[in-house]
Structure formats: structure tokens, C-alpha cells
Amino acid sequence: MVIIYYVIFVTVLYFGILCFSYKDIFTIRRRAEYSSFKSLAGSDVVPPISLLVPAYNEELTIIENVKCLMTLNYPAYEVIVVNDGSTDKTIQVLIKEFGLLPVQNPIFRGTIRCEQVRGVYHNPDYPFLYLIDKNNGGKADSLNAGINFSHFPLISSIDADSLLEKDALIRMARMYLENPEETVAIGGDVRIANGCKIENGAVKDVSLPRKIWPMFQSIEYLKAFLGGRIGWSSLNGLIIVSGAFGVFKKEAVIAVGGYRDGYPGEDMNIIIKLHRYMLENKKKYRIAFCPEAVCWTQAPDTYQIISNQRKRWGRGNLKNMLENGNMMFRPKYKTMGMLTMPYNIFFEALNPYFRITGLLALVGYVMLDMTAWPVLVIFGLLNFLSGYLLSVGALILEEIAFRRYPKPSDLVKMLAFSALKFVGYHQLGVLWRVQGHIQFMRKNNSWGTMTRQSWEEPKAEEAA
Q: What are the Glycosyltransferase 2-like domain coordinates in residue numbering (predicted)?
């Protein structure tokens, strides 16, 4: 009976968060169609932003990424690429493409600890592009180095395999300017670029992925970002701003000691630290989500790569929950303590174990004639139906506000994969999370083998 109550409770909670997303979606739609962001593109009231791009073995995608970032519709910003001790030609292709030269005696303004910086490169012909070369220390360490060097009051973390839409940053700025005193972080929407046509660092033709693994992830991302993060943001209980694209108030990030080094999950950790710091110091704040600000990213397209990624996410999630579990059920942490942390501990970190033990218990009841097998079938069907409706709910949000996939065949394909993901892919997700937890217990802190694929070439090469 415990597993039945657990499933009912988590399903009600999922639909509750989805309802909060629906509550805000029509406001978001009006904001996406027309907003003052258009007039802000040339305004001097928009705060300048430092875009931080950690790069480790990104020679296949880094040039397109930088070209994209250098053509955004934003009045004042800088692009700081941080080469994290790459073993491929990342630094060489950047130096050659943009004619970068060593900077003598570069000035670092921040004091966050990071690995040794070997050099800074710049070309006056590209006045707002900088390249930092440093010893390998991981993504969090690279972001900390970028913060130390950055010149502006807002910072934005951008993955090196991601491309921003031209108006993404100005949409973020519009949301920030609604309440600049209280806004400490804003997350952007992340979409899967696999299958899209890319030209000169921009998505020219939006299309769904043709391979099965990225297609499943497209559905997964829609559910997580539109069905989940809009709702959590409205409650000021957002626990993660994707490392692929987020904007932060630099002084707040410095106040909490920068990004946590040495372990995956730095994007979740920095948000938890910001919540904790603001609440413990009794400061009014908000951590928002801007779904109309879109970042396109490459998704893993093989079993090995996606399994490595999800195990890493599992390790990071578990470590964050263990480190911050003392926030749970403490009223002084408000939404974070009373809802977000319990949700993530019981329904994210521990979810695989409830599912596995629950399924085994139900099968055992049937085999011991303690219940009839139709009960097991009905339970499975209801579980599938509730999960499918949540995915469909996210697709409806997409159709209401954005319609980035306008072809009727795209909608049919998304509906079909929303159902197919429960036959194998969903179960693999449970397995990968458990394996990630096992790796954590074994103190496996590796990033895992990943790949990058050129935006224009189908051939893939390995990168760590």
C-alpha cells in the first residue's frame, strides 16, 4: 500500500506544478509575442553582461558558438571563453580564427579560488572577446576563473556546445529589469538542436531530431522546462538553472563563494547556495525562469554517451541533496525548505528505489496470490496514463505559447514519442540514476566520456 500512496502523492504533486505552469502560460505568451525587449536592444538602461563559456576539448563546436554569441541583439556585453586545459585544438582554433594575441599583465578583479591561469588572449578588432587559458580544473573552476576576470555586474553561463537565439539575452534582461533589486538568477529554456539546420552560428530551420535518443530527450526537456520550471519559478522554488544558459547577479554569486569545484551538479549547487544565502540573511529575492529565452544544445545521440550523462546527473543530484538536506521541512527556508527540497529528495533522488521496490512488491503479491494480476496491469496502466498526460500537458504549453515545431507531423511525432518513452527509455532512466548513486558511493568523480559533433559535419569525434 505504501507504494500506491507514494505514486498517488507524487502524481498529484506533478500535476500541481503543471497547473502553476498553466497559470502563467498566457502571460508568457503575450510576453513572447510582444514585449518591451525589442525597444531595449539599443537602450543604455540595459545592464552589460559577461558571457562565460567554459571549454574543454570543444574544437568542433567552439567557433560556431563564439560567432553566435558575438552577434546577439544586445547593446553591451563581453564573451569570455575559458579553455580548461583542453588536450585537443580548442585554443589553437580560437587563436587562429579570431587572431587573438597574448595580453600582458591581465587584471583579475575577483578573488574566487581557481586553477592557475596560463594566459589571456585578446584582439582589439574583437574588443569584447577574451580567451582565458588555464590548467584543467573542471567546469565550475572555469566559471570561477571567468567571474574573476569579468568586467560587468551580470554574468551568464553558456555551454560551448550551445547556440543562443539572437534575442535570448535581451529577453533575459527584460525579465531582470522587472525587479533588478531582488533578481539574483534567471534560467533560460534549453531545446535540442539535433536535426536543426545551423548556419553561421544560428538555428535557421527548426526540426525535430532524426535519431531516437535525441528525440526522447526533446520530449523530456519540454516536460522538464515548460511543464516543471515555469511552475517552480512562479513559487520561487526553482532548484536549478541549467548550466547551458543562465544569467546571474555577479555580486550574489561571489557572496556565496562562486561555483562548487570538483563535482558534477554545479548548476544545481549554485542555485541552492543562492537560496540558502538569501533566506538565511533575510533578503528579498527571486530566482526566475524565462522560457522565451532559448538556447539550442547538442544532445547525446548514443546509448553510451547519454548513460554517462545521466549517471553524472544522478551523482550531482545525490551530492547536492546530502549536502543540503538540513534545509528540508524548516520554515525559515520557505518554499525551498517546505516543498522543493522534500520534493527533490523523496521524488527525485529516492524515486528509483520506490519504483523498483514497489514493482517487486506488486509482482510478489501476484505470485503469492495475495492480489490478482489484473491489479498489477491496472496499476501499470494508470501509472503510464498519468505520465503520458504530464508529457501531453507540456506539449500543449508549447503549442499555446511558442509553436517552435509548426509541422503537424512534428506534433504527431512528439505525441508518439511521449508514449514510447515509457517503453524502455523511462526504465533506463531509473537504472542510470541508480548507477550514478553507486558511482557516488564509490567516490567516482569522473565526468564521463562525451562527444561533440560539428554543427555542420555529421562526423563525430571524441571529447572528454
A: 50-94, 157-378
